[in-house]
């Protein structure tokens, strides 16, 4: 099929929920993607942080294909070795005790919120169910996670929104204190607000928020859907802050390209969600978990060091560009604040030049595969700098 044939078919049959760029993607290798007519694109998006090992990774593909030939799906009412192995690897590497597998970051966040409310109900009874999130946050597209998202512009069209949420300004300890009354069971935050403009939280705020939660037995939830699985230069970003939450959610890069979400918890919460309190038909699918196992087997300090070095190289090189006013983020999760150009126009122009980048509010956002080579990195930077310096 040609690009036009693909575009016309998609435009006819898909709901128009996405503002597509003028590109169709049919194949990939490393950090490079290819179109139906030979078009070539360097990818600085990783499918919005999903393709952590890049494209066409042989070990990952073999692991997934092998599991597909053995057993594609079985009900979670039965044990399965690859699912158990994925759970063991994730818990051991992350430092948490138990995990629930879902299909997305939004579903992982749903589980985290149910877990917090169930723990509070079991411990204190009814009436302690409010969840505090931060303004400018993003937690998903389901009704519950959309309500948890602290962005007014996203709270439209879908009334009535579920009750039980409150918002505090990020990095404002007084605002957080004021929000933590006797009805609150949890505080949920992203260590780096991704969709909100690649805004890392202040370490002091995170530490003091953790102390407040411990004092009041309020659960601290970290939404690490975008920051997790090596993205910031550690397995999870909480390690960068030195604050381990009670509950952590993960998705995106965890499956290396397959749909997965995970809600992890510490030991004291391990038995809160008993049989019948939560579930998912496809959560913990064996094929997906085979991908999870391969991704996790590759997460080591050598890779994290490469992520940190590549992130620093991006910062140093792009900061030389006059159009770049500021660079925010951690590791290979970076946002470029521009002086005069519009991020969406820059992203569209980059596609024309053979580079895929993202936006986050008014920023250009970069989330390349963790395994991107130095050569691919330099080629992509050259294209981006060319676009940023165009008159």
Describe the structure in your own words.
The chain is an alpha/beta fold and 391 residues long. It is 38% helix and 18% strand. It has 13 helices and 17 strands. The strands form 4 sheets. Strands 4-12-11-10-7-5-6 form a 7-stranded mixed β-sheet, with helices on both faces. Strands 1-2-3-15 form a 4-stranded mixed β-sheet. α4 packs parallel to α10, α11 packs parallel to α13 and α12 packs across α13. The model has no long low-confidence stretch (mean pLDDT 98).
Describe the structure concisely.
The chain has 13 helices and 17 strands.
Proportion of strand residues: 15-25%
Rg of Cα set = 21 Å
Number of strands: 17
Order of helices and strands: HEEEHHHEHEHEHEEEHEHEEHHEEHEEEH
Helix content: 25-40%
Structural class: alpha/beta
Low-confidence stretches: none
Please state how the strands of the largest beta sheet are arranged side by side: 4-12-11-10-7-5-6
The dominant shape is globular
Main sheet specs: 7 strands, mixed
Give the N-to-C terminal Cα separation.
Answer: 35 Å
Mean pLDDT equals 98
Q: How many separate helices?
A: 13
